[in-house]
Amino acid sequence: MGKMGEKIFEWIADYCSGTISKKNGEALRKWIGESSENREIFEKYLRIIKTYRMVEGNRSIRDQEAWTQLYGKWKKQKERRTAFRVMLAAASVLLLIGVGGLALFRPLERDMEQQIALILPGTTKATLVLANGSQVDLTCANLQEVKEQGVCVKNDTSGGLQYDHSLLKIEEPVHHTVKVPTAGEYHFILPDGTRVWINSESELTFPVSFLGDKREVFLKGEAYFEVERDKEHPFIVYAHEVAIKVLGTCFNIAAYDENQEVVTTLTQGGVNVEFAGKTARLCPGEQAIADITRQTIECQSVETGMYVSWIKGVFEYENMTLEEITEQLSRWYDVEFTFAAPEYRYRRFTGVVKKYDVLNEVLRIIEKTTDVCFMIDGRKIAVKAVGF
């Protein structure tokens, strides 16, 4: 498997124990997204550790300890077997000790794999749509530089877009669009230096060079902005019929079509939200909700962490309904939730969950305080009463 294989193995071990660093976490997610084979290997490793932990549950063995034992056995035998076969062999030996016989392992593993249908989190992935309509997979491992009308587009060292204007000869606006699918996210820097995080099922359209006296971009879905300050050229985000105007600040905008609302949450600086002839001025810690149907703007003070935590690798919920929570989880994990009874939609949950955990673990945490259970069937999840 080589040095790279050993690194990946260690990353998965750290992932299971919750000790993986941000840098390695990004590397692991990129590796998983490179091919279906990588994702299958990752899922298989997780199943084995879950199976082992459940069998050894009475001994309270932590994931990291189990992984250490498995990894040690894998290293000793790596020259004779592939990492995958060694993982199974090591797990078999450990289970032999735990349950008293190798014959019990195979049916147990099959049963556990059926029971533990792990649903993996989303990954970094996006598509760049050029002005001529052609599309570029931004997370392709062998992405080559793309040149269009004097602009060189390429991936930088952090995996985001980079625009080289050294040969720029643009007199009329040329727009690109970054599209992020379900179970995806993408972070990059706009041509003016503004940093953008785009959430699942979202897209951002922007010029390859900001011309004139304004910097205008167009958003569908959700994104977080850290705007590069420029007093002479205000930054404007258009979402539906709403215009959010700033000079230099940090804020989140959620503008999904199904909600018929544009929700702007300010963390730093100041913004003006303009809609239907009305203007709302926000200060840090405030939020403006523009209701497209009612043609109104309402402002309120909020705990901003709930609305921007997704860019930091967690989901924060404070007295939030299961309907709101499952909408977010649906986009990130590419699943569909149904409610056995309407009242379950309005059960509330307060807590913090890790964005890059498998969905099974996230749902287990939510179950503890909401008096519901989540029944997983493939990528469909039913919300039912406990004990159903």
Write the layout of secondary structure elements.
Elements: H1 2-17, H2 22-34, H3 36-55, H4 63-77, H5 83-99, H6 105-115, E1 123-124, E2 127-129, E3 135-137, E4 146-148, E5 151-155, E6 161-164, E7 175-180, E8 184-189, E9 195-198, E10 202-207, E11 215-226, E12 235-239, E13 242-246, E14 250-255, E15 261-268, E16 271-275, E17 278-282, E18 286-291, E19 296-301, H7 305-308, E20 314-321, H8 322-333, E21 336-339, E22 348-354, H9 359-370, E23 372-377, E24 380-385
Parallel strand pairs: 1-8, 11-12, 21-24
Antiparallel strand pairs: 2-3, 2-7, 4-5, 5-6, 7-10, 8-9, 9-11, 10-11, 11-14, 12-13, 13-16, 14-15, 15-18, 16-17, 18-19, 20-22, 23-24
Helix pairs in contact: 1-2, 1-4, 2-3, 3-5, 3-6, 4-5
| CATH C-level of the largest domain | Mainly Beta
Number of domain modules: 3
Strand portion: 25-35%
CATH topology of the largest domain: Jelly Rolls
| Average of pLDDT | 79
**Gross CATH architecture of the largest domain:** Sandwich
Q: Uncertain runs with pLDDT below 50, 5 residues or more?
A: 52-64, 77-84, 92-116
Distance linking N and C termini: 46 Å
Q: Using DSSP, what is the number of strands?
A: 24
| Shape estimate | globular
Q: Classify the secondary structure makeup into a structural class.
A: alpha+beta
Biggest sheet features: 16 strands, mixed
Helix fraction by DSSP (H/I, runs of at least 4): 25-40%
Helix run count:
9
Computed Rg: 24 Å
